[in-house]
Amino acid sequence: MRSLTAIGTLLLTLSSWLVWIRGPISGGVNSSVSFGWLAVFIGSMAGIAWFCRFSRFVAICGMMGLSLCSFSVLHLAVKDPALWSLVDENVRCANIMTFSSHYLPANFGIAPTFEPNLSVETLIDRLAAAFYFTGWGWWICLLGSFLILSGGLTISKRPKIPMMASTAIVIIVIQGIMLISGIVAQFLQERGDRDMTLGRYVEAIHRFEAAQRWNLLHARSERVYLRIGEAYYRLENRSHPMALFYLGDQYFQQENFQAAIAQYLVATQEASPPFKNTLDRRIAWTYVLRGVAEYRRGDVGPASGYWERALAFDPTQLQAAYFLAKSYFDQARYEQSIAMSGFLLARSQNRLLNANIQANIGDSYWKLNDFKKARMAYEASMQLDSFANFRIFKSLGGT
User: Fold this and answer.
1) DSSP-assigned beta bridge partners for residue 28
2) Is 225 found in the same domain as 198?
3) How confident is the model at residue 149 (pLDDT cuts 50, 70, 90)?
4) Rounded to an integer, what distance in angstroms lies between the CA atom of residue 310 and that of residue 372?
5) Which residues are within 8 A (CB) of 71 and not within 5 positions of it... i.e. 6 or more apart?
6) Integer angstrom CA distances of residue 59 from 15, 65, 145, 367
7) What is the SS3 assignment for 113?
8) Longest dimension (CA), the chain
9) In which domain, by residue range, is 128 found?
10) Cross-strand pairs, 27
11) Same domain (yes/no): 91, 192
12) Strand partners, 22
C-alpha cells in the first residue's frame, strides 16, 4: 500500500500543473484562489509523511486533498465571480457552433461533453455549473487524494475512526468559515427575492445591495442588478441606471435590440464599476445579436459594423471576432478575415473551434490564390479535428 500512497502523492502534485477550472474557449481560467499551489502543499506534506511512515498524517493529507476538490467547486459556485465569465463563454461557444452549422461548410465534429444550456438561477444550478467547468487538474487531484487516503488507512492496522472524524469536522468548519460571505450573500439574495414577490421593493433593494457588499459573485451578477433595477422601476424611479438596465432587458427579451441599446447607453452615463462593466458586457452582447439578425437577412456590411462595436465594448467577445472573420470573407476582405482569425487563434484553446478557424484561414488564402498557405491551413485544421471534418476532406481535395 506504500506504493499506492506514493502514486497518489505524485498525482496530487501533478494536478497543480494542470487546469482546474476549464473555459470552453479560453481553456484555463484564473480563479481567485490558487488551487494548484494548495495541491502542491498537500502533496508535499503527504510525501513527507509517506517517507517518515506517519500513516495517520498520510490519511489526513488524503482527506485534505479530497476537501480541496470539494472546496474548489463550492468556492466557484458561491464566491468566485469567474463563474459568470465561464457561463458567458459557454453561451458564446454554443452560438459559434450554431453560426458555423448555418453559415459555414459542414463540419460535424462536436465535443461530446459540451452542454450548451447551463442554468445558474439557484445555488444548486451554480454548483452543477461549477462541477461542469472542472478540468483535468481537479480530476487528477481527486484520484490522487483518494489513493493517498486509501493507502494511509491501510498502512497501519490501528483504528483511525475518531481521528478521521475529528479531522473531517475541522475541515468542514474551516471550509464553512472561508465560504461564510458567500453563504450570507446567498441568504440575503433569497430574502430579497421574497421581498420582491411580496411587493416590498425598498426592503428588496436593501437585501440585494447587502448581498453585493458581502460577496463579489453577487456584486457582478447581472441577475442581481436586474432585480434591483426592477425594484426601482416598480417604485417609479425609472431614471435610475439600474432601472434603465431593467427596461433595456425587457426590450432585449423581445429582441428589440435597438431600443435595448438605447437604454443601456443612457444607463452607462451614471453607472460606476462594477455595474458599468456589466453594462458594457450586455451592450456588447446586444450588438452581437443585432449583428446576427442583420447577417441572417443578408445585410453583411451592417452586421460587420455591429460586431466591431461589440468588440469595442468587450474585447473578450470572441464570438464577435469569429463572426467578423466570416463577414470579412463574404465582403472579399480576405486579409482582414485572416487577421481576425489569427486574433482568435491566439485566444482560443478549443480544438474544434480552432479547426474551423484554420479552415476559414485556408478559404481566405485560397481566394488570394496563395494555395501553399491554404493547404497548410487546411492540414492544420485536419490535425486539430479529423473526426467527421468533411469540410476539410473536400477542401484538401481541391488543393
Assistant:
1) 22
2) yes
3) confident
4) 34
5) 175, 178, 179
6) 19, 10, 9, 63
7) coil
8) 76
9) 2-106+120-178
10) 23
11) no
12) 28
